[in-house]
Amino acid sequence: MKRIFLLILSVSIFTGGFAQEESDWQQKFEQLGPILPTPNEYRTGSGAPGESYWQQRADYDISVTLDESNHRITGAETITYHNNSPDVLTYLWVQLDQNVREPETNTLKVSSSGIRDSIPAKFFAQGMGVSDYEGGFKITDVSDASGKKLEHVINKTMMRVNLPAPLKSGEKFSFKIGWYYTVNDRMEDGGRSGYEYFPKDGNYLYTIAQFYPRMAVYDDYNGWQNKQFLGRGEFALEFGDFKVEITVPEDHIVASTGSLQNASKVLSSEHLARFEQAKKSFDKPVIIVTEEEAIANEKDKAKGTKTWIYHAENVRDFAFATSRKFIWDAQAVKVGDKTPLAMSYYPKEGNPLWEQESTKAVKNTLVTYSKYTIDYPYPVAISVHAASIGMEYPMICFNFGRPNEDGSYSDRVKYGMIGVVIHEVGHNFFPMIINSDERQWTWMDEGLNSFVQYRTEVENYDNFPSRRGPAPNIVSYMKGDKNSMRPIMTNSEQILQFGNNAYGKPATALSILREAVMGPELFDAAFKEYAQRWAFKRPMPADFFRSMEDASAFDLDWFWRGWFYTVDNVDINLSDVKWFRMRQENEDIENKGKNVKKGDLTATAGNGENMDFSAGPQEFSLTETDPRFYGEFQNRIDDKAVIAKLRDKNYYQLTFKNEGGLVMPIIIEFTFKDGTKQTEKIPAEIWRYNESQVVKTFMLDKEVASIAIDPDKQTADVDTSNNVFPRTSEMSKFDEMKKNNGK
């Protein structure tokens, strides 16, 4: 039945493909092979780690003391560095991230600045670097295990340690570093870590990170990571085991990466009993330190100190929070064969919101992310409340969302707080476990994390106002000024519109890939495969792209090219619709064929000027099949039977124009005169011969009342006014104006 008709369509589509220059029409569907790195024994063409994949390891034994009166951290560490590479190393690079705050930091020097009227003094002071605060590590010791001084050179946020002898493949080297630095006031100086002061009770809440010199990455891709920390591009780190002793005022409560080793020494018997109870409470959190106890604890400041000891295995970083203001609750979560503790630490200023929502959000995050990636492997996951921050570290994160002073809060505050908890706890998976290079590729942790954050929100909360992930939410950005955009595949320090580029656009791209291109079943399986392949390893963009294709049998190079390597947008214009029906003729097909006009053969009769169906269908005829179309075949089609089957059908010839540049599947919804609907999804490959315009004809039993492209707004189409038919006269005039302006 379809052979004659498909022959007609194939002729018109194929001919249209040659309207473009070859260099143009090949580009969007050209394979990424020349762009991506060549597969090797470390990283395969499938996107999986190769048989010779390796990565370095760094173990830490750290002791730090917080001097609350001077806001000073003093520390000493022993780093044991394992050279698992095939290379011989003559020096090591250590990251000194606190040096981003030293007086001569490059961060201020390379930041553009200008003056406008009525600039808030706080921001102007930050931009000009006029604060009295003097940050940065003060290195007091660099020596080997025996105490012998090691030659070292500090270059801004990096320190090179020269080895006394070459470190061969398979060997390890231990050395010591001593340091101190002054903790910054986040209200004055901003930053990912620091302290917050509460003037009403005279107390502080410390969120402490990047507090120790830590090993830079040496890998198969770049050798030593050599990008300075300027403040935006986050961290490239090695996995290892941590033993950390944290000495703080004795009335402080400490939240930390890792498992608490000396709970019986630092907790009261009552708090210890509640802590043990929480490990068995799966239905709701157990409050370990109550609000009343925290308020009482705020009043008197202890003179002595207490040391909390934490161990963490196979983590890439370490952070902690400490305050006498903390309320603390915890709940057990069932994830596979593990039962991690979801925990929250927050001052009274966070209640009642934090007691109601934080640990619940931690639990929801662990369960949902585990479904999409790997089962959460660590013993705890902690959410700490601190003003105006969202920042992540292994097993612990710092999150905003504070009610009004009377305890009331809006939905905006509530959902903002839940969203940031999900996002920051979710970072345990990206990049704390699936250990991408944040210094280079922000989207590999922020974008992938924002995507699974969106899945967590929609699967655990009714009508959650998700910011990033839904396709309509990225439209305003996508149709903006291209001069203020850069492709997703841009280094972290060079991104423009950071939130949209590194969070929103990749999260939306993956949502569209899941819903509109691959389908949830294939996408979820491929995404999980990627996560399992690269858990506790360091993937690069090519590993993600290749893994998604390898595990799904989808060639997605066109998708990665469009969404990740360009600033094009989606704008598919349903520019023309023609309605056809076959002529009702009684004469034999043999006689009819003698009178048919050549124009009837191509089924393109009609001027297409009507923007509705008021003129009725155009008519066309089928002719007797010429013997030359059969080639060497001896048998013949029954033309009369074919015509009989096709005679009462409705044929709708749709013309689509790619106005935005991004090739995408075309989702078409037909609404029939009887009110029923039918949806057709045309794969993106329909654009492969002509990326600017394609024509597609549909054979339908019923008459169509209207047609809509992307009716559920799944593709982030930036202009929905040209997605519908019939068009109003106003729409038609607008289309014409756009067409003329484009010329």
TrEMBL record:
Q: Which InterPro entries match?
A: Peptidase_M1_dom, Peptidase_M4/M1_CTD_sf
Enumerate the spans annotated as Peptidase M1 membrane alanine aminopeptidase domain: 368-563
Q: Where is the composition biased (Basic and acidic residues)?
A: 730-743
Please name the CDD domains in this protein's record. M1_APN_like
Span list, region Disordered: 715-743
One example GO MF annotation: metallopeptidase activity
Ordered alphabetically, the record's keywords are: Signal
Signal sequence segment = 1-19
Q: Where are the transmembrane segments?
A: none
Where does this protein have compositionally biased stretches of type Polar residues? 717-729
Name of the protein this chain belongs to: M1 family metallopeptidase
Species of origin: Fulvivirga sedimenti
Output the lineage of the source organism: Bacteria, Pseudomonadati, Bacteroidota, Cytophagia, Cytophagales
